[in-house]
Amino acid sequence: MDVPESEVVRVWLKQMETQRKVVTTDGQSVDVIYVGRFNDSSGGDFRDAVVSVGDNVNQGCIEIHSCTSGWETHGHSRDPKYNKVVLHVAWRQDNCSKTRLEDGRIIPTVVLDKDPGSMAEEVERVLPCQGIQSFRLAACLERLGKSRLEEKAERFRVDIQTMEAEQALFAGLLEALGYSKNKGPFLELARRMPLKIFSSMARDGEGLLNVQARLLGQAGLLPAQRGLDCTSEDYIQELEKIWIKCVPVQAMSHREWDLFKVRPGNYPVRRIIALASLIIRFRRYGWVETWRRVLGKLTCQESQVDLLPLLMVRSEGYWSSHYDFSTIQAKNGRWLLGRERATEIVVNVVLPYFIAWSRLQGEKVLTGALEKLYYR
Questions:
Q1: CA 244 to CA 34: how far, in whole Å?
Q2: pLDDT for 30-39, tens place per residue?
Q3: How far from 253 is each of 222, 248, 370, CA to CA, in Å?
Q4: Domain boundaries, the chain
């Protein structure tokens, strides 16, 4: 019976705590200088690892399998994303094949093959903050929180002074929608589809479907742009028709987006659909003025102003049961942008932005109210 890969990972990391020198299947000695960090994207299981083989020091990924045959079974030898792997680790050797990359290079393989009974032992972990007095931890967290807020506010101050104020807020929100994996593509989308474009669309009376089509088409994520066979849906046909009629533009490629190991709720397509609803929602007064009116209430009364509904977007129609085109969710998702993500956007974008904005406007009372809300 094969050992689950998750257990092989645990045993490997436990061994690395005390013994960094390992021997490959062909007798080579390997020093693992740095075991790397978990990779939540495509490629090897651990990224930025550093290993020394003979006189060569290599930096790249470490890939882990239950059996050595997993390299071929999982198709890594045919996938260029795995060309950065510098060490293959397996629990058991069940073939004699070399670990060959897609580009033809051969990398070393290490087989752990320990007593399975040892895997039942729990790895002793010490909490980093264990033994520190709680009031010292609280003071430390408060200092770090203030430093983080100031860094973000300073960045927005620069953005407000170098681009239109509304575009700076718009770009900040799009970056937040991208999480760590798709921040870059979302910022590129903000550059290619600035807010002023949607202002002209509003004057032309274009509705939600048009905004969705424009955003998805510019992002390169419409089904026809990705070679997806799902054009029988009326909704999808309408999106494609609208995009075809748009003035010819150089759209992004769908390959610019990281769609690997992305939770359904965070899928870029769903986030873009949510963005389209926000663009319609803020259309009347504009992004800065809408938020200014809501945040201004903080200076008038000691009330708990709930900012989250302004960002939350319910899923409707096609998107109540899909997280991508032709890809049905296991269960219906009620929100395209829910309370948890809205909270993160308020903390990381809205409050730092308007602290920077209010300082530039000289509105000290609003600045103080926003800072109190941030800490609360």
A1: 50
A2: 999 999 999 8
A3: 10, 15, 39
A4: 5-119, 134-207+263-375
